[in-house]
Every structure is written in structure tokens, then in C-alpha cells.
Amino acid sequence: MNLHSIDSAVCKKCGLCIKVCPNKMLATASDGTATFIPGRIQLCMSCGQCMAVCNAKAVTIPGLSYEENIFESGEQTVDIEKLSHFMATRRSVRNFSDKPVPDDVLHKLLQSIEYAPYGSEHNGICVTVVRDRQKIAQALPIMSEFYRWLYKMLTGRMTRFFMKRKMSPELFNTLDKHLKPRLDVNHYDTSDGTDHITRNAPCVLIFHAPKDTPEHSQDGMIYVTYAALAAHALGLGACINGLVGAAVNKRDELRQIFDIPPENEVVISLLLGYPAVKIKKGIRHKNVKVLQ
Q1: Domain match, 191 and 137 both
Q2: Which of 290, 284, 291 is nearest to 90 (CA)?
Q3: For the chain, the helix, strand and coil percentages under 3-state DSSP, each to the nearest 5
Q4: Using CA atoms, how far apart are residues 171 and 274, in angstroms rounded to an integer?
């Protein structure tokens, strides 16, 4: 049974759905209405564009509905000056107050992810919300031990040699150039009560997905970016964090603490909370080389 369909009885024959479909799945039928091309239906990304432009609500896409997924967005209300100012005033926060994140604020933040673009509708992304600091405190020594083990691997002659051969240049250089200098000074040791891993954040969002699902790594990064921007709009501080996920993916005890399924891979995490320090000056990072 083909679940992709056009209700020809209500179709207005405007052709907009045909025009906006990114994978050219629609065509004009002999009566002038739109119709799905049988040999191209498998290309559907569930982007919903065809439904969004159809005022007659004639389009059916599996998994989407006009009631739950399509809404009136109105006109764009943010100009480039306001957007630039908003983005310029956002910064990574690594010092959090003890104030908890209220349920309604967290709900609004998580809703923002629903508007994010994605590479694959089958990415399987899940977000685990951790607000129990006792649970995080239980996990921190295990994470700290993982980073001590990783340091031994990076500094051992043979283990370093095989890591460099097996890993992609990007991953190895990330570990060697970015992480190792911190491991050199035992930065992630938690034995004295210092937490440079989750930064004492009152809330941690863990983005994860089944290891074999398409595009989940890229999509997870897109989703966490949307969440970080929403956090700023809600008055929260946020910091995108790769330390939690790297440890969870290698330690089953951490999976059990955070209830991450064994078949899932953590892509990224987001530390959330109210900033303990307010910085009133902007910081411009010129890290991107523009070539024209």
C-alpha cells in the first residue's frame, strides 16, 4: 500500500508541491492535479515541504500530519542586525550557578530542536536529559578514570603508534593537539571535587542514536547547535561538550548510569544551567578562513 498520496478531490492544481519537492517525486497528472511518481517515492526525506505549501491539505506523507507537524509560521521577524547581535552575545558557559533549570524552560528548549534541519529522517537521534547531580557525581570518577587510561594510550610508544595508524588524522590530532595538553596537567581528575568534565552543570543533555543509523553524527551536531542557541534565548548558559560522550561510548558502567542503550552511540552533549558569571563584552573568534 502506497502511503504517499494526493487527494485529487481537494487538490487546487497549483503545482507548488511539485515545485518545492527537493527530490522531484511529484508530477502533474492528466487531470492537472499533482501525483506522486511511483519510482521515486523512496527518495522522500519527510521534509514536509510539499505539505507546508498545500493550503488545501491534500498531501499525505507517512509520519507527518497537518495537525501535529504543519503550522502557520507567519513572516520572518528577525533582521540580520538583530540576529548578528543575538549570536554575538552567545558564548560557551563553563561556570554555572546552582539554580536548577525549570521544567517549562527545558521544555521550550527541547521544542526548538523540532525545527532543526537534518540530513536523514532515519537518524534515530534521542536526547537523554540528566538533571540528577548525584547521578552525575556517580559517573564522574568513571569518566576521570577513562581519561587517565586515554592518556596512557596517547603517551605510550606502541599504543600511540597504533592509534595514529588506526584513527583518522582529524580524530588523532584532536586527541593529541587539543585533549593531551589538558591530560598532561591532569585536568580531568575529579578526586579533589573539581569537575572540569561537566562543569557542575545542573543539567546535561546527551544526544545519542543507534550506531548504524544514517547521518546521526552530523544531525546530532545540528540539533545540539539549535539547543545551544535556544538556551541563549531562554537566558540559560550552555556549552557543547564532547567529553561525556567519548567516555560513555567506552564504558558500560556509564551507559547504565545514564540509561544509554548498548546499541546507541553518543554523538555529543550539552551542559546547561544559569551562568554564574555575566560577561558583558562580546568575543569575536576569527577561526574561519574565507576564500573567494
Answers
A1: yes
A2: 284
A3: 40, 15, 45
A4: 32
Length of the chain: 292
Residue numbers of the chain with a pLDDT score lower than 50: 1
pLDDT of residue 162: 97
Q: How many CB atoms lie within 10 A of CB 224?
A: 24
Nearest to 154 by CA among 186, 185, 176: 176
Which segments of the chain are extended strands (E)? 5-6, 26-28, 34-36, 59-60, 126-130, 203-210, 237-241, 264-273
17 shares its domain with 123: no
- Which residue range is the domain that position 136 belongs to? 77-279
**CATH code, domain with 55:** 3.30.70.20
Same domain, 48 and 106: no
Per-residue pLDDT at 89: 93
Rounded Cα distance between 206 and 264, Å, is: 11
- Residue 221, CA distances (Å) to 3, 46, 109, 216, 266 in order: 31, 20, 15, 9, 11
187 and 138, same structural domain? yes
**Helix residue ranges, H only, 57-196:** 80-88, 103-112, 133-155, 157-166, 169-173, 180-184
Residue among 232, 227, 200, 226 nearest 100 (CA):
200
The pLDDT assigned to 120 comes to: 83
Please give the model's pTM, rounded to 2 decimal places.
0.91
pLDDT of residue 1: 44
Residues 99, 189, single domain; the answer is yes
